[in-house]
Structure formats: structure tokens, C-alpha cells
Design goal:
single chain, Apoptosis, Tumor Necrosis Factor Receptor Associated Protein 2, Chain A, 5-stranded antiparallel sheet, 2 helices, 4% helix
């Protein structure tokens, strides 16, 4: 339709639509998803006016026609200085891209208290450690490897008066879906003489890239740590523990 469609807000505009024809041979319940762009050629300026709204158009038995009621205003279109009409001729066009429906999707499952979810890391000769970050071995929980890290001289706002501890997301196990991962963890500095552990809870979405860490800069003050009567530093060793209380696992499933 190239005159304004008043039922589609096209009064004073050119309205243009695309319609599917000869659909009788299609199976019952047919549907075609389309990325639709409509054009008005401007030969004077050697370019096209493109109209689209970015939404996928679903053609089916109930809706065989899609387009735009307000393609271009009649005032602009009929103004010969604009260049859309040359020698009483105009040109319209359509770009129709078929959007294939997805036959698979990602399913995210949150697992509470997953298997093998406690990792213990004992650090020896604490007093001899340098001013740098140290990292544990990687451990697997869910579909992803994790590790702990800390600087014995402090980090960020806790430096140099407090001890930090961070959980880092690493790579993925073989055949896992690499995607952002939820990790919720209890991070502990173990008390080696009692059950009075220092503990914090941390939860975050970890990106696909390795080495992203979340934690705290002050799980314990250095003064309390070095007070051997408190039980956190024993025989010049400390013990960190990570208890992964919830992780996300992503699988590809059919739609």
C-alpha cells in the first residue's frame, strides 16, 4: 500500500507493507520469522531511506502482512527538491532476512553444597613470605576451577594492617560450557587451636576470563594474626579454607 494507511497512523504518510502470498502449501501452524527493512530510493542523492524497528516480524496464517504505516511523510516524499520522485517515478524496496529459530538454549542450574566443595590451603614459613600475591593450587567445583590468593603484607585499603584473602575463577573443565559463573563461598582463616575461625561470605558472578578475584582486604588484623596466643598463626603457618556453598552450572539443552 503506497498511500497513507489511516488505520496504521499513516495519515499524511506513505505506508508500505510486505505480504506473504501462496501460503496454502505450507504446513499447518507455519511461521516465518523475518528481520525486515523497507527502503525508499532517492536517485537525486544516490542513497536510500531505510526504515526498520529492529523487531523480528512473525509471519503466520493469522498475520501475513508486516510493514510501516509511516514510512515517509507525503510532504517530504512529494517535494521535488528532496529527490524521491524523478520524472514522475519512484522506487521502493525491501530487505527480508529469514531469522532461523533457535533449536538450543543455555540452561543455568544453581547447585547448593556441590560435591568436593571444601578446599584447604596451608601456608608454611609465613614470616619469610615476600610482599607479593601468592596463589593456591587450582581446585574443581562444579564446571570450573578456582583458586585462593593473598598478599602477606596486605592489599588495598587493608594494607599493611590486615590480611586479605580472595577467591579467583580460573578455567573450565573439559566439555563444560564456558560462560559467566556464579560462585558463593565461605572464606575462612582457620583457628588452629579452637573453632573460633575468621570467616566471611562472598558471592558474585565471575566472568569467563580467568584470574578474576573477589574477596576481602581484612579477614584479620595483622596484630591479631601475629599474636600466637590467638591460634591463627601456629608454628609460623596459617590455614585458609574455601567452602563453595553454591555454584552455577550451564548446559546446552534443546528448545
Amino acid at each position: 500500500m503506497v498511500t497513507g494507511n489511516k488505520n496504521d497512523g499513516g495519515n499524511g504518510y506513505i505506508s508500505l507493507y510486505v505480504r506473504m502470498e501462496e501460503t496454502e502449501s505450507l504446513r499447518y501452524g507455519w511461521e516465518v520469522n523475518v528481520d525486515l527493512k523497507l527502503f525508499v530510493h532517492n536517485p537525486k542523492q544516490h542513497k536510500y531511506l531505510t526504515v526498520t524497528d529492529g523487531a523480528v516480524k512473525r509471519f503466520n496464517a493469522a498475520k501475513k502482512e508486516w510493514g510501516f504505516g509511516q514510512l515517509i511523510s507525503l510532504a517530504t516524499f512529494e517535494n521535488t527538491n528532496q529527490g524521491y520522485i524523478v520524472q514522475d517515478t519512484c522506487s521502493f524496496g525491501a530487505e527480508i532476512l529469514i531469522v532461523k529459530p533457535a533449536n538450543q538454549q543455555e540452561k543455568v542450574t544453581f547447585i547448593s553444597n556441590p560435591p568436593n566443595n571444601v578446599f584447604t590451603w596451608k601456608i608454611l614459613r609465613f614470616s619469610n613470605l615476600e610482599d607479593k600475591f601468592y596463589y593456591s593450587a587450582d581446585f574443581l567445583v562444579g564446571d570450573r576451577y578456582w583458586r585462593l590468593g593473598f598478599n602477606p603484607k596486605g592489599s588495598g585499603g587493608g594494607r599493611p594492617h590486615a590480611l586479605p584473602i580472595f577467591l579467583y575463577a580460573q578455567g573450565f573443565r573439559s566439555n563444560a560450557v564456558a560462560t559467566n559463573t556464579w560462585g558463593a563461598v565461605n572464606l575462612r582463616l582457620k583457628n588452629q587451636r579452637s573453632s573460633n575461625h575468621r570467616q566471611l561470605y562472598s558471592a558474585a558472578w565471575y566472568p569467563i576470563r580467568s584470574g578474576y578475584g573477589v574477596g576481602v582486604n581484612n579477614i584479620i588484623l595483622m596484630a591479631d594474626l601475629k599474636d600466637t596466643s590467638k591460634g591463627y598463626l601456629v608454628n609460623d603457618a596459617i590455614i585458609f579454607e574455601a567452602e563453595m556453598v553454591k555454584v552455577s552450572v550451564t548446559n546446552i539443552v534443546p528448545v
